[in-house]
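General statements about sequence and structure are easier to judge against a single worked case. For one protein, we set the task of working out the structure tokens from the amino acid sequence alone. This step matters because it turns folding into a mapping between discrete strings. The amino acid sequence and the backbone structure tokens for this protein are reproduced below.
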Amino acid sequence: MTYNTQREKLVLPEYGRTIQEMVDICMSIEDRAQRQQCAESIVAIMATMNHNAKQQPDYERKLWDQLAIISGYQLDIDYPFEVVKAEEIAARPRPLRYPMQRIRYRHYGHLTEAFMKELKDMPEGENRERLTSMMANFMKRSLYNWNRDAMDERKVAGDLERYTDGQATLPENFHFASVSNGYLPGSNASKKKRRR
């Protein structure tokens, strides 16, 4: 009795040993027309084995590519598509550049700095006051998530002033939102929590 561990390793195990053997037989056929017909039959069987393949874009091209891979690019037939080369499959993708930006206070993040620039240039009024209070509570939440022991409302107020070069400040009687329940005041989630 021969075990699968003693047999030749499968190129694409998802299709099983039967497809591998079919491809091997197909490669041994000398008549080109019969070999072409055999390859088309194998691709049709591969399509029925992989039910989700038809939902993917270019599924037929992928099946022919997989047939070429299984045959080790040795199957001499007329492919209906240009087959992907072995070098392209083995090639490693180029590393993506990580967008590095200098952030003054990393625990607040890049978007907070962008908001602060907008807040700094906003004209005085109710909208600016509301945005200032929202940003203060958001900064408190960010600092709380970053390091609960370092969370200090005076620090948040000072950071807000530094970010805006003193243009936006919190009023003396300003009350920060509680961060213990996980929600900021005014959000839909906090209203739902209160109703229960």
About this structure: The chain has eight helices and no strands. The mean pLDDT is 82. Residues 110-180 form one domain. The CA atoms of residues 133 and 170 lie 7 Å apart.
